[in-house]
Design goal:
This protein starts with a strand and ends with a strand. The strands form six sheets. Strands 11, 13, 14, 16, 17 and 18 form a six-stranded mixed β-sheet that branches. Strand 26 and strand 27 form a beta hairpin. The chain contains no helices and 28 strands. The protein is mostly beta strands.
Length: 263
């Protein structure tokens, strides 16, 4: 009668794997194997020799957990069973941040399930990052810079690859932002309460407009976005008179410091 001595998933090198992987059954008296019993599923072997049988884990395998494997000969005799563990496919559910700077990237925590055997996080066309998760439901990584970005915002899917496969692309997204740039302010001088028109590029989801005075003190301004190239800000109170600057901040970082005089 056939005897199974070990099971080896050729992808993981262990007795763990996912649907689609090839598994080697090692043992003795295996040459008459007609089928592999993968839990309740009957699988046709790919190759059969006296000491080794190979088969492909069926897509009907359970999502995760232990499965008993045995072989049955062409005369109906069934071998002993050994356990095999189906590794669950990872899923992603969200990120700790929604955007990062295209110039620098940044620290991000990815949330989801079945991360423990993870080897890398993929960030769309930007690149892959090696990871070693210590928790099943989250992993922190550094999103790489998107140095070739042209548009102000580039949305990229975030996935994770584990021994159980790669999570579905498109369910978790991160936005890369180019830094904004100020080209002019009109008028170029003003006092507390004056409205200033700021022209430039990359004014997408602006979160802060900052005035810096001649003493290097700063104050955030109330502002109204008009378009991706135009916004209106009100000169804040409490700033010293003299030559200062204005900057605009988005997820892409700070803009250049544009000259502005407090009168």
């Amino acid at each position: 009668m056939a005897t199974i001595t070990s099971l080896v998933d050729t992808t993981t090198g262990t007795n763990q794997g996912k649907p689609g992987d090839t598994v080697q059954i090692n043992g003795t008296a295996l040459s008459t194997t007609a089928r592999v019993n993968f839990g309740s599923a009957a699988v046709t072997p790919t190759t059969v020799t006296a000491t080794q049988v190979t088969f492909v884990i069926p897509n009907t395998a359970p999502c995760s957990g232990q499965v008993s494997i045995s072989v049955t000969s062409n005369t109906g005799a069934t071998s002993n069973t050994l356990p095999f563990f189906v590794i669950a496919t990872p899923t992603t559910t969200g990120l700790s941040v929604s955007c990062v700077s295209a110039a620098t990237g940044g620290a991000v925590t990815l949330f989801g399930t079945n991360f423990l055997t993870g080897t890398q996080v993929g960030v769309g066309t930007v690149g892959n990052v090696a990871v070693t998760p210590t928790q099943p439901s989250q992993v922190t990584f550094t999103a790489p810079a998107n140095t070739g970005q042209v548009g102000t915002v580039s949305t990229q899917p975030v996935t994770i690859t584990t021994s159980g496969g790669t999570s579905t692309s498109g369910t978790t997204l991160i936005d890369y932002y180019l830094s904004p740039a100020i080209t002019s302010v009109v008028p170029a001088a003003g006092t507390d309460g004056d409205q200033i028109t700021i022209n430039g590029t990359g004014f997408v989801n602006v979160d802060t407009v900052t005035f810096t005075d001649s003493a290097a003190a700063t104050a955030t301004a109330v502002f109204t976005p008009i378009s991706d190239t135009l916004l209106v800000a009100t000169v804040p109170a409490g700033l010293a008179t003299g030559a200062g600057t204005i900057t605009v901040h988005t997820c892409g970082g700070n803009s250049n410091a544009q000259a502005f005089t407090i009168t």
